[in-house]
């Protein structure tokens, strides 16, 4: 089952004009700043906005002229939006009931999906008795229990605390592998890395960059996409205590959902990277030190962002230094340097292996 969409929408001075395809089991992440058009795309797909022109098909079935309830779409947002007067089981059963399933069949499917999201023990609880992470698990089960032909995810982790989000990411990554075409709207590149096989970056209602998620975010081709990512992202394979890269190993702290031997990415901010002259003394972690060459110096607010080129994870690496440090080291494009980051600053996350 494949989603194919071409959408044109004009609202005041804002114009949206995008096109994309998402195959069954595929996840497309839409990234971009506020006002770039991400939510408008989702609204048009869901039937909540009426575009000026649209061709939206799901396996050849035209959705563009259908009302929201007839589109066969599941929607998961940052708020679980569970019915407060219903138990978790009845909340999930509501989805298949709304598509015509009988009461017994709806409850059977609800129990299956609660089991799938590791929440069957919550079946009898009402939403007020659930934590944020528990409520989102129930919401995921409800969105999928209707067996939608298309799944829309609208900032599904934004309301979760930092401890609950990784588990929900891991859960969604698992269930989406065999799920319907999915469009994920997010402002967080980590969400895209964890869930999506492809990403489209929006700016001003247009797609300015698209491609495989890891390629786009680990090696941005435009300054805009680099700003969206805002992180150093090193792809590789999860190993004990870090990440195996193309040229060695990067020590870091694995998230709970990381599985050794599977695709993963090391994530750390430019502020965590120390820069030393290649022949100078440095005190960085020897496990996480790599040789590079200064490629560019970019003003970045109160700091100077140093971008490097080189082999392995030095390629495209960003480090934020004070202007005084740049002057003291006499850095300029072409200067050989050592780049170092402490293992405690490196987070290793599982990524989509679609």
From TrEMBL:
GO function term, MF aspect, one: ATP hydrolysis activity
Keywords of the record, alphabetical order, are: ATP-binding, Cell membrane, Membrane, Molybdenum, Nucleotide-binding, Translocase, Transport
Q: Which terms in the GO cellular component ontology are assigned? A: membrane
* Segment forming the signal sequence: none
Q: Where is the Mop domain?
A: 283-350
GO terms under biological process? molybdate ion transport
Pfam families referenced in this protein's UniProt entry, alphabetically: ABC_tran (PF00005), TOBE (PF03459)
InterPro entries annotated for this entry? Answer: AAA+_ATPase, ABC_transporter-like_ATP-bd, ABC_transporter-like_CS, ABC_transpr_FbpC, Mo/tungstate-bd_C_term_dom, Molybdenum_import_ModC, Mop_domain, P-loop_NTPase
Report domain ABC transporter positions: 2-229
In terms of SUPFAM superfamilies, this protein maps to: MOP-like, P-loop containing nucleoside triphosphate hydrolases
Q: What is this protein called?
A: ABC transport system ATP-binding protein
The major lineage groups are: Bacteria, Bacillati, Actinomycetota, Actinomycetes, Pseudonocardiales
